[in-house]
Amino acid sequence: MMEKILEVTNLSKRFDAYQAVKNVGFQLVAGECVALLGPNGAGKTTILKMIVDMINPDSGTIQICGGEHAKMKQQIGFLPQYPNFYGWMTATDALQFMGKLSGMDKAALAERIPEVLAQVGLDATPKQKIATFSGGMRQRLGIAQAILHRPALLIMDEPVSALDPIGRREIIQLIQSLKGETTLLFSTHILADVEEVCERVCIISEGEIVADDRIVSLVQANAAPVFVLKGEVGVSEFERLIEAEAAISRVERKQGALYLYYQEDADAAREAILRVLMATGMAWTSVSQAEETLEDVFLRMVGK
């Protein structure tokens, strides 16, 4: 049985009259890489800040590695959306400073700092002032400080949202390299990042989790009720007859194909399509169920 690294139960948070988070619950087991996916203002950052103990929940519980939140929070590494460092420091200076704050001794830091600088690709610039760093370099340094003490859980808040394409690519590759070394949870609204690095996603809308599943399962379970028919001749006659079939609710022409929507019964719709194809003698090349994407599912879930 996989070790449970994070367990969030019935977590809620209100700011004055605004209910930011509503009875949120989910868990992560060792080695998972999970995204909190949602539009701006959905509650992603608030959830992460409660997990890292930056703000207190109004209700609910958080357990880290099976223990009480307050006693186990040292097992968390955190990368905020906009990590701040003193510009006059070098990367080595910053990591020494952060390491001391987290209780690491000199000997441990002397061994660990070169390791993490190499891991995040900053080992060639240990004496360069942070003030001269690019956005991507700052994010990499932010990840270095977050993993310095070898946390069981690494939490990242919108790790690439403020970066240019080059910086974004650097951080995504770094996140990929961290999979398997620690358990990862990050918030984002960028679907491509989720599909590239995660197997599982929690979709959040208006402070609530509306879906929590593996991406493949989520897409399959929410497949649109539509068959796509590609053919060459006799389309008009086919359309007239298929629209009269009870199993078919709507017919649309798109991108050189016919999209045949059905209500619930995919088998009945498939039989109706084949029956009308045979009746009309239409030359067709393929009949297939329309492929869904994570974007399709996400937009439907959040009502955008």
Give the helix tally. 11
Give the SSE string. Answer: EEEHEEHEHHHEHEHEEHEHEEHEH
N→C terminal distance: 38 Å
Q: Can you identify the CATH superfamily of the largest domain?
A: P-loop containing nucleotide triphosphate hydrolases
Strand content: 25-35%
Report the count of strand segments. Answer: 14
The CATH architecture term of the largest domain is 3-Layer(aba) Sandwich
Could you characterize the architecture of this molecule?
With 304 residues, the chain is an alpha/beta fold. The protein folds into two domains: 217 residues, Rossmann fold (3-Layer(aba) Sandwich); 69 residues, Alpha-Beta Plaits, CATH 3.30.70. Helix content is 36%, strand content 30%. It has eleven helices and 14 strands. It has a six-stranded mixed β-sheet with strand order 6-7-8-3-9-10, with helices on both faces. The chain has a four-stranded antiparallel β-sheet with strand order 2-1-4-5. Strands 12-13-11-14 form a four-stranded antiparallel β-sheet. Strand 9 and strand 10 form a beta hairpin. Helix 4 crosses helix 5. It is elongated and about 80 Å long. The model has no long low-confidence stretch (mean pLDDT 89).
